[in-house]
Amino acid sequence: MDILLDETLTKRVETIRSGIVKFQLGLNDDDLAVLLQRVMDAQERFRTSPLATVANDLEKEVVVSSVFGTNTIEGGELSEQETQEALSLSPEQVQNIQQKRAVNIRNAYDYIREVSVQKGWQPSLADVLKIHQLVYDGLEADNENNEPGLLRDNPKGIVTRVGNAEHGGVYKPPQLGKDIRLLLESLLAWQAELAEKGVPALIRAPLVHLYFELIHPFWDGNGRVGRVLEAGILYSDGFRYAPFAQANYYLRNIHEYFALFNRCRKAADKKNEFANAEFVEFFLEGMLETINHLHDRVNRLIHIVLFEANLKRIHDEKQINDRQYAIVNAVLHNGAGMSLSELKKAPWYLALYSKLTDKTKSRDLSKLKELKLILVNKKGELMPGFIEDF
C-alpha cells in the first residue's frame, strides 16, 4: 500500500511548552502488507459466517470478556465470572467499587458502539471526554486531581511521569493543559485526514491508540479510554466483535503491550522512519488471533445450537427419558469436562435417581454414550457429543 509511505500524511504540531510534536505513519509497507491482508481476509471469512444464528450469545460473551480484559489491565480485581455477574446487575444492585468499574467500562463500550455507527462519524474531543466521564462515573481515581471528563493540566510543582523501568523507562508527557488539548484535537483531526485519504481503519486505530497513550491526556484512565477509542474507530469500519475482544489480547501480552509504547517513542526520538511499525504489527497480530478465535467460537456455538435442536428432537421422540435429557443438558452447559463423580453429587441428579437403582443409572448413561450424546475424554470426563467434531 503506497499510501503508507506518503510523507504528506505526517502532521507537525507546535506546542507552547512541549516543542514540535509529530504524528506520522512510521510504517514499513513491505512488512505490513501481508499481515494486513491476512487480517482483512480473516475478517471477511468471519463476516460471512452464519453469525446471525448465534449473535446474541456471542455478543454477551464478547462484552464480558472485553470488560474483564481492559479492566484487569488497569488493576481491576474481578474474575471473568465475577465480571459477568456484575454486568447482569441493575444499577441499584451494584454493591462495590470493583463492580462499578466493570459497569462503567461496559457503559463506555455501549456509548462508542452507538455513536460510531452514525454516518460520517469520526472520533471527536467530545467523544473522548464522554468516554472518560463514563469510565469514572461515580468513582474516585487513584490521582486526586482526576475529574471525570476533564483533561489534565498540571499545576506548578506537580509533574506527571509515565511508565517504569520494567517496560522500557519513564518519560514525561505534555504537562500544560493547553498543549494537551491542542495535541489531542490535532491527533483526532489527523485521524480524520487519514480516513479521508484512504488509510485503513486497521492502521488508523492502533496509531491513534499509540499517540493517545503518549499524550496521556488524563490524570487517570488513559488506558481504558484509549482502548475504547481504538475500538470505536474499528467498529465504525464494520468490525463488530474483534475491536472489543482485542482487550484480551492486550491482557495476555501485557508486558509487550506496555513496553511497545516506550519502544516506539524512543524510535521516534531517534528519527527512525518506521518508528510505529512494532506497535501496529503487534496490534494486527492481535486482531488476526482475535478474529480467528471468534470464528472458531461461532462455529462452536453453532454446533451447540444444532446439538440442542437434535437433543430436543430425540427427547420429543422418546428415544431418551427426562433423566437422560437432564444429564446431557448439565454436561453441555457445564463449560468444561464433568467427572462422573461430580455428576453423581449434583443435587438435581440425586433427586432424579433417589429411588432408582445403580443399574438404572448405568443403563441411562450407557444409552447416552451409545447415541453419542455423551462422550468420555481421555481424562474420563463426560463431554457433550458435538465435541467429537472439533
TrEMBL record:
Stored Pfam families: Fic (PF02661)
UniProt: ATP binding residues: 220-227
Domain Fido: 123-285
Single GO MF annotation: ATP binding
Top-level division of the source organism's lineage: Bacteria
InterPro entries found in the cross-reference section: Fido (IPR003812), Fido-like_dom_sf (IPR036597), Fido_containing (IPR040198)
Site (Important for autoinhibition of adenylyltransferase activity): 74
PROSITE patterns: FIDO
Keyword terms of this UniProt record: ATP-binding, Nucleotide-binding, Nucleotidyltransferase, Transferase
Active site (catalytic residues): 216
EC number from the UniProt entry: 2.7.7.-
Name assigned to this protein: Adenosine monophosphate-protein transferase SoFic
Provenance organism: Hydrogenovibrio crunogenus
